[in-house]
Amino acid sequence: MEPRFSPRLCFGSCTRCGEAVYAAGGACKAMGHLFHNTCFTCAVCNKQLKGQPFFTVLGQIYCEDDFLFSGVHPPEEVCNSCGSSITDLVLQAQRKSYHPTCFRCVVCRQELEGQPFAVDSDSRVYCVIDYHRIQSALCGACMMPILPTEGSADSIRVASCKKYYHVECYSGEVNLI
Predict the structure, then answer these.
(1) CB 141 within 8 A of CB 165
(2) Hey, which residues does 30 pair with through a beta bridge?
(3) Cα separation of 75 and 91, whole Å?
(4) Residue 27: enclosing H or E segment and its boundaries?
(5) Cβ neighbours of 45 (radius 10 Å)
(6) Beta bridge partners of 28
(7) pLDDT, tens digit (0-9, with 9 covering 90-100), for 49-106
(8) Which residues does 167 contact at the CB level (< 8 Å), separation at least 6?
(9) Long-range contacts of range 58-62, CB-CB < 8 Å, 24 or more positions apart?
(10) Are 130 and 122 a contacting pair, CB within 8 Å?
């Protein structure tokens, strides 16, 4: 006598829903667990994954697209300067990523990897010299930028009546008219 296939033969319980799994055609096994085909789906888009590539993160199952593009998988680093993918060394500055060769002063284009730099209110990166030259206050007397003395990072200036002066340019006179 030949054994007969019974469509009601139970293979076990579905890992996702916990209900009995009947008939081999409606079930699949993945990661050592049994699932109904309708239960073995992507956690984001609910696409059925039987026979498809899938990924797991913290117990959740994802299709390839959602794993790569929905934020489940960390995105590749993109250079804030050139917009290209960073596949080698990443330079991080001001919570942004750069190729080391792309991290440059916006004025003189000098590479700034390992160098002191400054950032303006619009998040533009400068070498220290150009930052002071462009961003420094102008002297109210001679109209020249008030720059740090050589070897210093600080500018010394006199503030009077909403104007700034070089120490040597300030006369101490106040014109209130």
Answers:
(1) yes
(2) 33
(3) 16
(4) strand 27-30
(5) 11
(6) 35
(7) 999 998 888 788 999 888 888 777 656 789 999 999 988 888 988 888 999 999 999 9
(8) 156, 157, 158
(9) 61/30
(10) no
